[in-house]
């Protein structure tokens, strides 16, 4: 599908049908997400894929009553790392070294530079930086889902602490950034037929 057609086709789904997305499609969408860009390439995030009907139902209680969290095929929870700092860089350097066959010693400058970049931020800024990286992955996820004709609804209308508690995220040095139910739109979901509300290009773009 043409990219503009795909982005016009997608919308924030209010009501999902009971259709289930095939595992291979979910896998492809996660792979597309894994390939997202991130600051310094550090990828300070994790995605939880929730299929369990019981767990999804439990999370409705922390989603301001948004039933789509339970109706959907899979509920994606996009979580940011909480232990941002040297450990974030060490993890990446190890991966870089293995992937490109370069010794850790050869990556000393990169290691120092990246650690210094994170060290100038205070704890709140580092957490915000991690959430920003999650949003890039989420945006990529939404666009790729649209191209695959998988319906989505990005959501932050949730109780973040509740999600963290139910999913045991804090113990894993993670915290919820946003969630995204995926599936197939319900034929009765009237939002599908509503016009997109977007500012004109001249309000958003300046050519210099
Ligand atoms: C970060 C973020 C959080 C959102 N949270 C919710 C939400 O909790 N519930 C919901 O129904 N829609 C949510 N939305 C969907 C937006 O309302 C929707 O994307 C926007 O109105 C534009 O409409 P469209 O996506 O249908 O084109 C969220 C979107 C984003 C990007």
**Structural class assignment:** alpha+beta
Write down how many β-strands occur, each being a DSSP E stretch of 2 or more residues.
4
Number of domains: 1
Strand content: 5-15%
What CATH first level would be assigned? Alpha Beta
Distance between the termini: 32 Å
Provide a quick synopsis of the model:
This protein is an alpha+beta fold and 208 residues long. The protein contains nine helices and four strands; from the N terminus they run ααβααβαααβαβα.
Structure description:
This protein has 208 residues and is α+β, with helices and mostly antiparallel strands. The chain has one domain: 3-Layer(aba) Sandwich (NADH Oxidase), CATH 3.40.109. 46% of the residues lie in helices and 12% in strands. The protein is built from nine helices and four strands, in the order ααβααβαααβαβα. The two termini are 32 Å apart. The mean pLDDT is 98. Bound molecules: flavin mononucleotide (FMN). The site of flavin mononucleotide has 10 residues, from loops.
Element layout with pairings:
Blueprint: H1 3-9, H2 23-34, E1 45-50, H3 53-60, H4 68-71, E2 74-81, H5 86-100, H6 108-119, H7 123-147, E3 151-152, H8 160-167, E4 174-183, H9 201-204
Antiparallel strand pairs: 1-2, 2-4, 3-4
Helix pairs in contact: 2-7, 5-6
The structure holds flavin mononucleotide.
Flavin mononucleotide binds next to loops.
